Amino acid sequence: MPCSIVPSRAGWSVLAAALLAGCASVGPDFKAPPPPDVASYTHAALPASTASAPGMLGAGQRFASGAQVDTQWWQGFGNAQLDALVKRALANSPTLEAARATLRQAQQLYAAQAGSTLYPTVSAKLGATREGVNSAAQGQSNGYSNVFNLYNAGIGVNYNLDLFGGNRRALEALAAKADYQRYQLAGARLTLAANVVTTAFAQAQASAQLAATEAILQAQQRQLAITEQQFKLGAAARSAVLALRTQVETTRASLPALRNRREQADHLLATLLGDAPGAAALPSFELGAFTLPASVPVSVPSALLRQRPDVQASMALLHEATAQYGVAVSNLYPQINLSATIGEQALSTGALFGPGSLIWSLAGSLAQPLFNAGLKAGANAAQENLAAAGANYRATVLQALRNVADALRQLDNDAQALQAQQGADAAAQDSLRLVEQQYQLGAASYLQLLSAQQAAQQARLGLIAAQAARLADSAALYQAMGGGQLG
């Protein structure tokens, strides 16, 4: 609570009473906002587990309500090469290096302010002066100038009493700023790990789709060769050959885009690891080399806010704004400084530390603003900054809850999509094999064959995308949960 002392009116007696009473720092004390009053992330209840499907990456995942998130959550995907890449990125990333340096800077700024705020400043002084005095200026007729040397040495102590806590509030703001940078570092680590994991999944997806498309291209080329032979024998029309050739070239034209996606994933992985794209030795991931975590943690909302770096960073900014408001309010109150010096002064160096050369002084000063229209405006501005920080914190909390809700629903919906895509791929492959047999026997037209090939190609590419999406969804949930408890 603000102190009620007004030294400019009540005088030194009231000020002395305030010193004895020990007034608290002005401005509000920071209190962490309460967590949102919600028990779940989504309006509709989640199922006990996601849908399951046969085949690779089709297993159902159980939602473990209230479970803690492992700080090394990426190990849940069961791939040692992925674990090694994340470890390498966390050790070598220049982004993390910059964040660590910024944190150390904030900590040193706090230490520098703490030294001058919590303790008196002590300084030593040593000097020598040569002076001359004109006797005529003192009424003596001879006009003789006396010249002498004056030597002095001393120690001075100065301390701001900080009666209304302005300096302590400023120190509190610096501590909150250091907390903010610490959470920024934690957020950068989480983002980096998630980017490495999802980029590895993207590389595996592009590789699988590239391999599937090449296999489809080979099948189309075989069909084209058969049709060309039939055309030579008069058993097929030239339009059938041209249609199949168009399909072959269309499929071939899709390969460069898939290679580009694969190469871009490699380049991104290299930079995430702190390497140049041309210098990094990267593994080639396959979707089948990953496993889905059988159980995914779903922290309660109150725990989520404690483990999300962005929420904690926003709270640190709110803390800083609260302290800065206290600084602005303290500027409306008196500033009291105490100082003391003790030293030696003599006309010769031989007598400098003698018994008669000791000098000392004690001083105190009080400065009370009488009229400064800007001080009140500054306090008002700090109060509005505090209100903005509070609103930004609430927005960050809502965004965090939304991230989790999106990740949970996406995990469930994409599991259902994979289940359906698995069935569609199996049916499309069976249909393609049947139409190929019929076409070779002359019982199906080339249009039917083209249609079956296109359906099979789209189904296989869709299945691969659905498998990669389930992996990416799991990583997104871990990231939305904050990647584990913060230190």
Molecular structure report:
The protein is α+β, with helices and mostly antiparallel strands. It has one domain (24-121, 163-333, 373-480): Up-down Bundle (Outer membrane efflux proteins (OEP)). Helices cover 59% and strands 12% of the residues. It has 9 helices and 6 strands; from the N terminus they run αβααββααβααββαα. The chain has a 4-stranded antiparallel sheet with strand order 2-3-5-6. It has a two-stranded parallel ribbon with strand order 1-4. Helix 2 (80-92) packs across helix 4 (166-232) and helix 4 packs antiparallel against helix 5. The longest helix is centred in the last third of the chain and has 68 residues, at 373-440. The protein is elongated, with a radius of gyration of 38 Å. The two termini are 32 Å apart. Residues 1-22 have low confidence and may be disordered.
User: How many structural units, i.e. domains?
Assistant: 1
Number of helices: 9
Low-confidence stretches: 1-22
What is the C-alpha radius of gyration, as a whole number of Å? 38 Å
Main sheet specs: 4 strands, antiparallel
Q: CATH H level: which superfamily?
A: Outer membrane efflux proteins (OEP)
CATH fold category name: Outer membrane efflux proteins (OEP)
Element pattern in H and E: HEHHEEHHEHHEEHH
Distance between the termini: 32 Å
CATH class: Mainly Alpha
Mean pLDDT: 85
Strand content: 5-15%
Helical residues, percent: 55-70%
Structural class of the secondary elements? alpha+beta
For the biggest β-sheet, the strand order reads 2-3-5-6
- Architecture per CATH nomenclature, i.e. the level-2 architecture: Up-down Bundle
Shape: elongated
